[in-house]
Amino acid sequence: MLIRDLSAIAAGVLCLPALAQHAHHDPDQVTIADRVHYCQPGAEGQLRGGYVMMDVPVDDGGAIARGSGAVTTILDNGPADNRIDLTFVGDGYTAANMGLYHAHVQNQYADFFGFEPFATYQPYFNVHRVDVVSNDSGVDNDPGQGVSRDTALDMGFWCGGTERLLCVSVNKARNEASAAPGRDQVIAVANSTKYGGAGYTSSNLATTSGGNASASQVYIHELGHSLGNLADEYTYGGPTTYTGPEFPDPNASIFDSADQVALQLKWHRWMGESIAGFDNPVSTYEGCRYSVNGAYRPSANSMMRNLGRPFNMPSVEALILEFYRIVSPIDSASPTDIAYTEHDDQISVVPMSPIGHTLDVSWSIDGEPIAGQTGQTLRLCELQLQPGTYLIEPEVIDNTPWVRDESARQVFMRRSLTYLVSISTPPGDRTGDGVRDFSDVLDFLEDFASAHSSADLAPPQGEFDFSDVLEFLTRFGAPCG
Ligand SMILES: [Zn+2]
Fold it and tell me: What single DSSP character describes residue 12?
C-alpha cells in the first residue's frame, strides 16, 4: 500500500515496550517479569488482594503453535486487524461440559458491554470463543489445595501460595486462543464456582472463574489491569504508609491534588470534575495501591477498588487510549494507491463508529485545511484544481470529552492519510480566479485552437476534437459535471 500513515509510524515509536527481557530456565523461551494481580471482594464488595511478579513468556505473535479448538465468533464488528479481539479459552471443561462453558462465556461478555467505556466502544471489539476440551472437569486446587486435574491450560487456584490467585499456562492459553482470527486480549475461563482471577498486566491476559456469581465483575476488574494497565485502588495488603517513588499507573499517585495541578501530573486535568455515569467527583483520596497513607486514588470509590462500581475518569481515559493503541480511528480508505490523474476522482475514508458520538473528519491540501470539508468523501472536482501535484490528507480524530490529554489524543486517537494527487488538465475555472466565466471559455478556445495539451481534456489523447469541447463544457457547467 502506498498510503503513508505518518501518525501510525509516530505512534509505533512511542509504543515501544520498555520491558526488561531476560532468559528463563528454558533457553528457547524469552520471558518477562509480569505483574499478576489477584483481587477478591471482602465485606460490601471492597476488594482486597495484591500482585505477584511472575516470569511469563514473551508474546512472539505468529511464531506460537496454533490450537485446534473450534472457534465461534460471538460478536463480529469487523476485520480483526482493526478491532480489539477478546478471545475466550476454557479450562477444565470436558466435551460433556461444553454447554456449560458456552453459558459461562455468554454471561461474562454480555455484562462487559453493559459497562462503560466498553459499552460506548463496543463496535471496536470482536469476541471469539475457542472450545478447548480438557480431559478432566474442574481445575487444580479446587475446592482445596492438593486437588490435581489433567486440564488443557493447567489452570489452578493457590498459585504461588495465594488461594484466590487463579493462574494459567500463558503459552497454552495463547496457543489455544490463536485458533481465533485475533487475540488482543485473552480471557482464560476456569470451570469453577470458586472466587478467583488474575490480571497479567503486561501479557494482555486475564483469568476468571466461569461459574462464580461475581465472575463478570471480576473479569471487568482484571481487564482494568490487563488492558488498561490500571492499579488497584484499595488499601489492603501493602505497607500502611507508602514511601517509594511515583507509581507508573494512570490511576495512582504519590501527589495530592494541589501538587498534581502545580506539577501538571497524572489526572490534574480532571480535578473537581464529575462526569455522569462514573465514580465522582475526581480529586485525590488518600489510600491506594495497597497502602492507607502516602498514595492517592482519583475517586472515593471505583471498579478498581470495589466490585459493582463504575470506573473513574482517569481510568476511563487510560482505557480509551489503550483501545486506540489497537484500533485506528480510520477503519478503511479508498483508493489504496496515490496515482491520481482524473478530474472527477474521489477519496473516501470510513471512520470507526462508537455508540453515541461520531469521529470528526477533516481534509487538508498541501498542509492547508479545506474549509467546509468534513464529510467522509472528497470529490477532487469540487476543488477546481489546476494542473499540478498536490498532497491531500484526510484526518480522523475522536474528540470524546472522556479524554483530556490532548497530546495523547493527537498521538493515539488521530490518524491521517497522505495522497499524492496529480492533476493533468485544468478544471472549468481554467484561469483560477474563483469563478467560471467568459475568460475560461476564451482560455479553452485559445488552447484548443493552438492544439495546446491543456485543451486535450478527453480521450483519445493527442487529438483535439469535439469530445474535448464537450468535456470543457461539462467542467464549465458545474464543478463536478
Ligand atoms: Zn485488582
Answer: H
